[in-house]
Amino acid sequence: MKDNIKIQLKDITVIFGKKRAEALKMLDQGVSKNEILEKTGCTVGVNKASFDIKTGEVFVVMGLSGSGKSTLLRCLNRLIEPTAGDVIVNGRNITKESDKELLETRRTEMSMVFQKFGLLPHKTIIDNVAFGLEIRGESGAKRLEIAQDSINTVGLEGFQNQYPSQLSGGMQQRVGLARALANNPEVLLMDEAFSALDPLIRADMQDQLLELQNKLKKTVVFITHDLDEAIKLGDRIAIMKDGFIEQIGTAEDILTEPASEYVQAFVSNVDRKSIITANTLMFEKPQVAQYERDGVEVAIRKMRKVSVEVLPVVDNDHIFKGFVWLKDLVGAHKEKKHSIKEFIQTQGPMVNPDATVEQMLPLITGTEAPVAVTDEQSGKLKGIVTQISLIVEATSFDREQIEELKENLNEQ
Ligand SMILES: Nc1ncnc2c1ncn2[C@@H]1O[C@H](COP(=O)(O)OP(=O)(O)OP(=O)(O)O)[C@@H](O)[C@H]1O
Fold this sequence. Notes:
CBS-domain; alpha/beta; 6-stranded mixed β-sheet; 40% helix; 3 domains; AAA+_ATPase; Rossmann fold; 4-stranded antiparallel β-sheet
């Protein structure tokens, strides 16, 4: 197993009902979930899920109610036994572990955070958080110290001696998170952890999780039915339907290259402006003027060759220096000037490849220049994003349409 892979799922299938063997066979033959239910009375919870979860990533599983998210998550720590397939955690096949080994895996490697907090009402916050440590056999003083640390980590310092009913929903969920963190697990399994919270508190918890994740760098598997939440939290997102994983990718992958009509319909209302980046939109090897070599005439010829009115200028190391405009160079040509250097406009919009459409749009107002996409560290030009593709992207074109548009622009 590669170093950066924390969890591997291999053909995980879960079937509920008595005639599982028969249902499994039908599933292998490609029979639909509905037909299997009709013929065998069995429900397909998860249908041959195979994918890797990387160390330190927030992996979101998203889908509508009944799509199999919770079932899939529960296979990861075997709260649900897969009907077929393997779950490999840290290189060990936990589907083959004995009950004792599994218990150890759950205690040390994975913690779960539930939607309904699951706090013990008659215990104080600190005792709730320390509860798992008690089961693990930590001494009294030690577990209180760890629990207090964990409470502080989620921003609840001072509330340790209160009871769950004295805390708001958001705070109770923080306790749930603190309890999970107290075990210092490598993997956090979060099942609709924020779904029961009011929208503002929910957004706050999402921010806090991201902040914590920046520091703690756990591997997080997060279940949600909310696409906005999935996009906000997920380094990668798996979209499930009827137990089947329709697509896995970054939010941008899923938006720009939806794997099925289902996914496309699912993401059709997403505000793409905040997700699509310069990296996706840019022309990768644009025509450029050479800072050291090209004179006015050569630059004009280059522009005419590709029918553009503006060229990015780069030096010998491909570092972006600015733009030159045809209208300026034509004038210079008449005046028999030869160097382009004095005509370079250095104020043109410049971004790094991660810049979103939303961030680029304000940069193009008041200028006609394309956006130069440069490497943040080296300053090298990586590509340019034309104003037209930015504006189109701010509306709602898919990847195929963008490619078509780029081709058309290239041909002009
Ligand atoms: N214990 C069970 N017995 C029978 N069928 C079950 C059981 N648990 C889940 N299912 C079925 O398996 C499928 C997947 O359910 P699951 O709860 O994993 O979906 P989900 O995407 O998490 O939905 P939700 O968001 O509503 O929790 C559904 O069709 C559900 O009815």
